[in-house]
Fold:
Amino acid sequence: MKRCRVRIEGLHAGQAAVAASDARFRVLCCGRRWGKTRLAVGLAIHAALEGQRVWWVAPSYKLASVGWRALRLLGARIPGAEVRLGVRQITMPGGGWVQVRTAMGVGGLRGEGLDFVIFDECAQGAEESWSAELRPALSDRKGRALFVSTPRGRANWFHHLWQRGNGTDPSWRSWRFVTADNPFIDPAEIAEAQELLPASVFEQEFLAEFNDTGTRVFNLDDVEQMVAAWTGLADPRNGGEYLTAWDIGRRSDPAVGITVDYSREPYQVVAFERLLRTPYPEQQRRIEARHALYPGRTVVESNGAGDPVIENLRIKAVPFVTTARSKTQAIQALQLLAERGVLGCGLDDVRREMVAYEWDDRSLVQDCVMALAIAALHLPAPGRGPAIPPPVGGVNRTAMGDYRGIEL
Structure:
């Protein structure tokens, strides 16, 4: 079988620099939407067309599906290529292939001798998947590897790999690119993200920074600033605009209701209740009474016990369904208000919970944090943040295009 001749075109300058490197192990740290999947797909197809055995590995089936979708679409355009959906593999005319695998647990990536491994979003995967399974699979064929990911702090094996690529070993090479290094991302989109996201999230997801603040979610200085900006609980006033959020209690968990006056900045927490072991009918009565006293929007957690509470209310309430995603969004909204200095709250219960709060909050008291976070998610966004720093990579704004450059 005649060996395929392959050329990949349409890469922007940052992608081209990574693709052209002859380092055996390449580590790519970049912001969201920089184009890492696009680059990795092109390299995977390139290697398979040259007769190599390639694995595309991701930490979960969901993440692997992103790469598989792009590989499948590109593979379908190659004459003679066989796309096998059941095993997520594309076999090329010259015998090379690329297969998508998941690293869901140590032990499932053994058995193959490989020429090239792409470990996508590896910061979310286990180091053992690489050291115990993928690295040995490259030994007999002296294969190569590409690690691509958005960072997840310094206490992470991906950061260790990235540091190794910045060392003196010529077989390792690292790069870091921010989202703005992609010339086809509208700067206005990045500016909006900076406005809406907490600084730590924006720095990680868009600036590709290994910012490691430990397990604490809320910065202590931000919490103290929030306490200092508080003017105290207050009766309703003419011209006040109010939003009330309720975290519904279950058995031993308290119900917490927090009302925020957002008619001026900094926004002020003006009413607060923490109801322990309170029957649901009484919680309903308190919700209705608060709404009558501070007219405006009322948001009520709707999971579990919250559903019948909302159904029996005699007022209109906005339900808040707590999922892993919506909870993260709510906490990030509270982070943003606190770090921008546009929220005043000096309640001891709230301060204590915010200081101790961690993302893994299963063993923490978090009712006040969640009530305030639900409110934060439904409040108007604060003002714009500082200017966006220039691109890290200094990449020229060249055309990207698609993968029309594959030649057989």
